[in-house]
């Protein structure tokens, strides 16, 4: 097995690995993890960290879950993978049946892919190929929102905020799309007509070249953890219908209960033409994503020149991942998850409330199992990350945001520990 001591792991990592959003030569040492169970990460030096991030928002059932472990083992005994071109298998069929049952009625076709970013790529390609197939090839542009984030691949980067996002370095080579102002109407409040003036003007002028509008419903995630009025989505659906533009919802971060609804779109009662899912789809066990669409899209593309949708990932509908996703969704639905999310919301709200009185804090907000402290200035990761580890919690801030998205299985006492550490660190930076 080798020597997996703290120092050995860090040295070997430093010599060969390039971590996400990090320098290859001048980054803080990564924290060595040897195992995980429940809501804790087991470190190489024997310490445990309370995980407030759900491994980038996906490990909703925590770690080493018996039901998900069993699903992996059972499927591994059948087959770990088979190509999806011309073949099918029970895990993919079961998962597609589940997803079409749980999402809005019109979304009855599922295209599987490898990751959230690719699910967005698939959605963008679906929209463009649809319009090409129905004789409107000029409709190739997208409309996205400022402060939005949709992934790190090229198509996805092109619909992320081009100025404040993390992809401005690639701006000169990315496709050029249209951007509308981010909603300022807060979650739970009405969305006045004035919020829609800019995007209405944009559609009025450019709808003949616009294929789709893509948004993260209710919660703008990595672009700023902004929560906005569900009524904005109602207005947006009406605009798309009026101007003959498709509507894409990116629920990669919000799907499967995180906002208090199974899908964030339920806060508005709005049905998109295309829906992207990922992250918590497999309970954090392995990578898998899905792009769902309605008959208008699937039939339009299928009747077009190509007669087929032109995309096909090698590991599409991987049986191990699909079987795990089925087990994860069934586990979530078998429990009183709405009560759990409501309890987590209350725990996060009360635990983070003391931060409102701190001089360096601009805002404190919670929604479902999401808790955010927004600072007035960006955090220094080299300083802040070790402070959290010293307090026995794992929180990964970015920009001005110190936030938590805990696993749904985290108890109130652990949430209190997590939020106390967040407030304490913020008070001491």
Estimate what percentage of residues fall within beta strands. Answer: 15-25%
Number of helical regions: 13
Distance between the termini: 40 Å
Briefly, what CATH class of the largest domain? Alpha Beta
Can you tell me the CATH architecture of the largest domain? 3-Layer(aba) Sandwich
Number of strands: 16
- Relative helix content: 25-40%
In CATH terms, what is the fold-level topology of the largest domain?
Aspartate Aminotransferase, domain 2
Number of domain modules:
2
The largest beta-sheet arranges its strands as 4-12-11-10-7-5-6
Which sequence of SSEs, written as H and E, runs from N to C?
HEEEHHHEHEHEHEEEHEEEHHHEEHEEH
What is the 3D shape?
globular
Report the structural category: alpha/beta
What summary fits the major beta sheet? Answer: 7 strands, mixed
Radius of gyration, Cα only, in angstroms? 22 Å
Average pLDDT, all residues: 97
Low-confidence stretches: none
Can you walk through the features of this model?
The protein has 429 residues and is of the alpha/beta class. It folds into 2 domains: 31-64 and 336-427, Aspartate Aminotransferase, domain 1; 70-333, 3-Layer(aba) Sandwich (Aspartate Aminotransferase, domain 2), CATH 3.40.640.10. 35% of the residues lie in helices and 16% in strands. The protein is built from 13 helices and 16 strands. Helix 5 (116-133) packs across helix 9 (295-302). The radius of gyration is 22 Å and the shape is globular. The two termini are 40 Å apart.
């Amino acid at each position: 097995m080798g020597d997996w001591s703290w120092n050995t792991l860090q040295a070997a990592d430093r010599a060969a690995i390039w971590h996400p959003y990090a320098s290859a030569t001048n980054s803080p040492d990564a924290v060595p993890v040897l195992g995980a169970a429940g809501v804790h990460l087991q470190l190489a030096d024997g310490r445990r960290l309370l995980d407030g991030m759900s491994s980038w928002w996906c490990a909703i059932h925590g770690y080493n879950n018996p039901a998900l472990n069993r699903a992996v083992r059972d499927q591994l005994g059948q087959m770990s993978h088979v190509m999806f071109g011309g073949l099918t298998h029970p895990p993919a069929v079961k998962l597609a049946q589940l997803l079409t049952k749980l999402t809005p009625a019109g979304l009855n076709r599922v295209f599987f892919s490898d990751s959230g970013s690719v699910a967005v790529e698939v959605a963008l390609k679906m929209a463009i190929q649809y319009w090409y197939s129905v004789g409107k090839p000029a409709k190739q542009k997208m409309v996205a929102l400022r402060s939005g984030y949709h992934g790190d691949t090229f198509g996805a980067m092109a619909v992320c905020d081009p100025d404040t996002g993390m992809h401005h370095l690639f701006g000169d080579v990315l496709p050029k799309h249209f951007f509308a102002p981010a909603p300022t109407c807060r979650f739970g409040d009405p969305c006045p007509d004035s919020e829609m003036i800019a995007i209405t003007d944009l559609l009025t002028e450019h709808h003949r070249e616009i294929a789709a509008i893509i948004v993260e419903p209710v919660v703008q995630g990595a672009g700023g953890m902004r929560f906005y009025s569900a009524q904005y989505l109602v207005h947006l659906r009406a605009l798309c219908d009026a101007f003959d533009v498709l509507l894409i919802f990116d629920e990669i971060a919000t799907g499967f209960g995180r906002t208090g609804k199974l899908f964030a779109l339920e806060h508005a009662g709005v049905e998109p033409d295309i829906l992207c899912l990922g992250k918590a789809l497999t309970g954090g066990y392995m990578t898998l994503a899905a792009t769902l669409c309605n008959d208008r899209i699937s039939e339009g593309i299928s009747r077009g020149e190509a007669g087929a949708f032109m995309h096909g990932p090698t590991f599409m509908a991987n049986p191990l991942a699909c079987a795990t996703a089925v087990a994860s969704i069934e586990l979530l639905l078998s429990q009183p998850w709405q009560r759990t999310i409501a309890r987590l919301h209350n725990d996060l709200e009360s635990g983070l409330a003391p931060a409102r009185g701190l001089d360096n804090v601009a805002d404190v907000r919670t929604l479902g199992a999401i808790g955010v402290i927004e600072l007035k200035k960006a955090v220094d990761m080299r300083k802040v990350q070790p402070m959290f580890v010293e307090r026995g919690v794992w929180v990964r801030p970015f920009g001005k945001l110190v936030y938590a998205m805990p696993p749904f299985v985290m108890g109130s006492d652990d949430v209190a520990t997590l939020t106390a550490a967040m407030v304490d660190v913020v008070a001491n930076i």
